[in-house]
Amino acid sequence: MKREHEEEEEVDAANKAPRTEADATTEDQAQAADQAQVAAAVKPKKAPKQRMAILFGYCGTGYKGSQLNPGQPTIERDLMDAFAKSGAITEENNDPKKVGLNRCARTDKGVHAAGNVVSLKLFALENLVEKVNACLPPQIRIYDAFQVNSSFNAKNHCGGRQYEYSLPTYMLRPAPHQLYPHSALSDLVHPELDREEESAVGEPWTVIDSYEDVCKYRLDPDSLAHLRACLKEYEGTHNFHNFTVGVRFNEKNAGRYMKSFIACDPYVRADGVEWISLRVNGQSFMLHQIRKMVGLVVMMVRTKTPATLVAKAYKEDRINIPKAPALGLLLRKPTFDSFNKQIKNQHEDSRKLIEFDNYADLVNPFVEEWVNKDMYKEESEKHVYMNWLLHVDERSLNFSWWLTKEGTIQLSLKPTDEALLKEEDDVGGGGDRHREED
Question: What would be one Gene Ontology cellular-component term for the protein (predicted)?
C-alpha cells in the first residue's frame, strides 16, 4: 500500500511540474495551426482572375495624357487606382506590368476620347463596371468590361482608329490676301468694295475682326466643296513625312493608310456659331499627324489653294505645316473588324464584340456632357481657334511660299531660313503636344 501511494504522489508531482519553453512552443504551434485551418475554412475565395477588355471614354481636360506616366496625372493612372479601390485588382498589383496592361490608342495632354480600349487581368467581380465607375471621377466612364482570350492585345487586335476634329467654320474664311501673295486670293479681291461689302460676299480683309463679328461667318457651298475635295486627297496609302516630326521621307514608318476623310454638314449652335466636324478613319497615325492634316486643309481653303497641293506634300520636298489646335481633336473610336469577324466565324454567340456603336446610348450622352460642352466652353472663353488664326497669319511667311494658286510647291519662292519665324510648340490651347501615334 505504501508503494502504491508513493507512485501516485510521483505521478501527481510530474503533472504539477512547471511547463518548459519547448512545451510552450509546441503547444503554440499546434494552436496556430488550428487557427490557420479554421481561417482557411471560412476565408472567402478570391474571384477568378481573367483577361478583360475595358471599353471606356474620357474627357482629357486636366490630364497629362492617357498613358501611365510616373508622377503625372493620367487617365490610366486613375483607371488603375479605381480597379484597386473596387477590388478588381489588389493594391500590391496596382502596376501595369503585373496585370499585363495594354492599350489600343494613346492620347496626349487635354485630348478626349469617346471610345478607347485597354486590356488587363482583373478579378471577375459581380457588377464590375458599376463598382469601378463608382471609384472613378465622372469625366472617365467605363461602358463595358468583359472577358477576352488570354492572348488578346488591344493594340495588335485593333484594325483602325476613327478620329473626329471639330472646328468653327470661321477658321475657313478667306485669309488676308496681302499675307499670301502667291495664292489665288489676290484674284478674288475687289478693290471697289468697302470692308462691310467684302464681309458680305466672303472676301478677305487685312485686319481680323472682333470675335463676335468673326462668329457670324457662314461657310458657303463652294468652300465646303473645296474642303471636301482636299480631304479626299488624303485617302489611300501615302507618305506622311510632312505631317509629323522626326520622320524622313525615305523611312518606312512614314507610310500610312487612310480609309476615309470626310467633312460633315455644318451646324449652328444655340450661341450662333457655326461648326463643322471632320472625320478620319485610318489604320494608325503618327505624332501630330491629324492636327497637321487639318492644318493643311484649313490653310488651303483659306487661301483658295487647289486640292492638288495635298499630293505634292507627299513628295520629298519639306514644308512646315501648322498644327491645328488640339482642342478640337477627339478619338471617336477604335475599330476591331477582323477580331469581331473571327468571333462571328467561330459562332461564339456568348462572346461580346468590341463595337462601340452598340453603346451609343452611353457614349453619345457622355460625349455631349463632358467633351463637347468642355470644347465649346473653352472656345467661347479663350477664343482658341481665333488665336490660332492670328498666330499663323503673323507667321504667314513660313507658309505663303507653298500656298500658291497653281497648287504646287515652288522651292524658288521659299524664304531663307533666317527669314522664317520660329514656330511655337503649340498654339490655341489643348496642351504642349498631342499624340495620335498608335
Answer: nucleus
